[in-house]
Each structure stands twice: as C-alpha cells, then as structure tokens.
Amino acid sequence: MASILTAVGAGAAVRDRLVEMARNAAEPNWLLAGASGTRTELTALIEFERTATRILEVAPMLIPGLLQTSDYARTIMSGLPAHELDTWVTMRVGRRDVLTRRNPAQFDAIIAEHVLYQQIGGPSVMADQLRHIAKMAELPNVFIQIVPSSTQTWHLALEGAFILFEFPKASPIVNLEHFRSSVFLYDDGDIYDYAQAGDSLRQAAMSPADSLKLIARSAELMEEQSDGTPD
C-alpha cells in the first residue's frame, strides 16, 4: 500500500491533511474539484480504505472498485492516456489488499442487478469479473448483496453511488464521486442519513446467498455469450 501512496504522490503533508480531516468533524465537508480519479482524490480513498474497519459501497452503475478485475478496470479507464493506463490499473487492483490483509476491513457491497448484465469489456471480461466477485465473497469479511431489478418501489440506490467508511476511533466519512468532482462528507447528520440509507438498501437487496446464486447465473450467461462470439 505504501508503494501505491507513493505512486500517487502522497507526501507527508497530504497524508497528514487526510488523517486530520478524518478525525476533525468540526471542519466543513471537503469538495475535490477536477476530473474524477485525480491524485488527491485517489490518495484520500486509499488512505480511508487503509484505515477503515468497515466499508460500505453502494454501486448502482459499476462493479465496486475493490472488486474489479484488471481487465474490467482497464476497460472503464480506457479514456486515460496510454502511458498512464497500466499504472492506474495496477493501483486500482492493488487497493484490494485491504480486504485480504491480516485484520482486513469488513466490506459490504450493494450492487444493482443490471450492473451484472453490462458487457463492459465484452462477455468474456464480464464473465471473469463476475467469477472474481464470487471468489471474493468467499472471504469472511466480504458481503455482497444485489438489489434486484424487479423491485417495484423506489429505493435509495437510485439516488447514486456512495461509500461509507467507518474507523476504529475517528468519525465516519462518506465519499460521493461525480464526473468532475468528489465530495467527502463527515457532518454527523449526513453520516446518519447515509448509514440509514445503507440499512434500508440491505433490506431491499437479496440475501448474500441468493445474490451469489444470481451472480453465478449471470457469469454462466456471459460465458455462453462469449463462447458464441465469433473470433
């Protein structure tokens, strides 16, 4: 993880600022303006992932970053300059060590069902991605739930993606990523609302066991489509 922080230019001053931000709830919420995925934003995410004891990610559009394969990540990052792409993909994949290290963070992912059927990178890439999610779900600290498309009522995932970080001593933080900005919230009222949203979505989503069955069926569907794709 230290090598990733170095790669994104996380100097001592930047890291100290991030840690202080996480611990000082008296400050206003923090807006990072500029293209999504900038060095400062990524440094913040890495630091919060590294120090969190529990991470909840609500993903209505894409596979959560901590669960992405390199091929899936490479596809969604294909707009980056070619000379930077490998570095950013490596950093994305390297971040998942927070889930596999000793004393890992608990990771709860709530994913919209339609995300499973998007053929990002093609059916073969997507099949591998879905198999990878199922493999990660075997970890005792990783819990995957799918919000079914058949749900006929409005639910909070329709409001957009968010990540809720919980820490052993510091106050929780919520991250909202947008096209040209990223917002970090740590006002008590905001945190409460997003925590409640997470609880509501857990109730609306399928159980982890049923979610994994659906993921497996989706992977089989992608594999069938991949086998039928002409060379």
From TrEMBL:
<dbReference type="Pfam" id="PF19054">
    <property type="entry name" value="DUF5753"/>
</dbReference>
<feature type="domain" description="DUF5753">
    <location>
        <begin position="43"/>
        <end position="217"/>
    </location>
</feature>
<dbReference type="InterPro" id="IPR043917">
    <property type="entry name" value="DUF5753"/>
</dbReference>
<protein>
    <recommendedName>
        <fullName>DUF5753 domain-containing protein</fullName>
    </recommendedName>
</protein>
